[in-house]
């Protein structure tokens, strides 16, 4: 009977454990989907839309100012980088549905097609601009040549004869001016009707150029060709410009951003639904185990009334042994699950508190030794002061003892180490205080009082606090923009930024950078305020990034032991308590970007 009861209890416990593990695993997968890199993809789409708008304005500016396309060409590397990054992210991200992926690829195709359109615009504009520059010069030259046609020619050695005045040159000049005026008017206000009329005029004029001298005829043909280029390409150039300045890319990007926001909200809803489902399943499992325990108790009771004292005693002993074994197994299972974190915590506390205390003991020994020497000197001086003036022998002996003690004090190396020992004591006490403070922040479950504050003030205060602490060769710069006030704990946010600056300085020192730079910036993105701390340190690989917020985890060294590894853990906790999150971007060998993302709440939402 006892075996049957034990098997029932074991099956119930295994069922509860398996159910909890399966449900927890399913919830973890949903949570990972909710995190993902959807936020980063949405941010890249926003950046690409903004860059596309600036690009279009640059094209229009080049047209209006009649300048080169160097500024337009400078946008291409960044555009292509963002386009390539988004395409890679879409291929790697499994949480994006196929229909949204297709829209994303169509959006990227629009950007690529726009690059080709801008190239067409650039080519046509260059041809038209050359013709526009040529026509005024050619017009002046042709008008001068036309004037010479009406001047009478006199052969050498003969008297000038009175001949009728020629009007060929004047008529030619009038035609040239008429064509020039028509082309200029058309350039300012392109129109299909005007284009047809001017091209007809050019064709009629072209039929008459052969009557002029060859050199003039060639110049006129060249003039007509450039005029035709302006007439035929201007309207085409305007149609290309309309495509460049069109809103298809902006509309597609706006629609994509909205879809990614909805997708992210749906994934968050799935996580919340999964949590509620987990709670329901846990309740069902607990009820099932309770039922098994009740049945087992009833069976034990029936069994107890059915046997004599010997059987009862045996059952009692077996029950006690089973309970001890279950307690032992439970204790072992718990210690095995937590052994890694407990071991890490014990090792870190031993290093962070034990080592400084040991050094405090050494410093105190050095000071104590010096103090003993001074006690001996004081004793000998007191003896000399109390010696009778008539006892010359005794005075001489006391002076000799004082001299021996002074020599011993002078030769005592511990005495010279006294000031250094005091400094070492002060440093170790400050270190222990800082470490215990971080432990207190990590374990404190009560958040600080919240109020409206400006993130720019937080950044400025953190920079002023850390300016003299980051070390030589490292500069801190702040670049702030106008950001609405945030509701939360100003003190906790400043502490978080200071921790990130500490981390950035350590990363720069670990990379051996000669000129270390830490850039802290603020900006508003949609309904969020973002504080970014960027360094040019050694960066992090994926393995390090996955553990960076774990308490007591650190890759940095101080002396012969690792530092506490609590700073970023405390920072994440404080940011989370203010309804925010920390986003990490890092490239090994290049640097790291820590971004604190805080929600911009309304007055009503903050008071809720």
Description:
The protein is of the alpha+beta class. It has 4 domains: 38-122 and 246-283, no CATH class; 132-149 and 167-241; 336-436; 444-607, Heat Shock Protein 90. It has 18 helices and 9 strands. It has helices spanning 2-35, 38-65, 70-74, 76-92, 98-149, 168-188, 192-206, 214-244, 248-306, 309-385, 392-411, 413-416, 418-443, 455-466, 490-511, 542-547, 567-577, 603-607; strands at 451-453, 474-479, 486-488, 516-525, 528-535, 557-558, 561-562, 581-587, 591-599. The strands form 3 sheets. A 5-stranded mixed beta sheet has the order 2-4-5-9-8, with helices on one face. Strands 1-3 form a two-stranded antiparallel ribbon. A two-stranded antiparallel ribbon has the order 6-7. A hairpin with a 3-residue loop joins strand 8 and strand 9. The longest helix has 77 residues, at 309-385. Residues 329-340 and 558-563 have low confidence and may be disordered.
Task: List the SSEs and their pairings.
Blueprint: H1 2-35, H2 38-65, H3 70-74, H4 76-92, H5 98-149, H6 168-188, H7 192-206, H8 214-244, H9 248-306, H10 309-385, H11 392-411, H12 413-416, H13 418-443, E1 451-453, H14 455-466, E2 474-479, E3 486-488, H15 490-511, E4 516-525, E5 528-535, H16 542-547, E6 557-558, E7 561-562, H17 567-577, E8 581-587, E9 591-599, H18 603-607
Parallel strand pairs: 2-4
Antiparallel strand pairs: 1-3, 4-5, 5-9, 6-7, 8-9
Helix pairs in contact: 1-9, 2-4, 2-9, 4-5, 5-6, 5-8, 5-9, 6-7, 6-8, 7-8, 10-11, 10-13, 14-15, 15-17
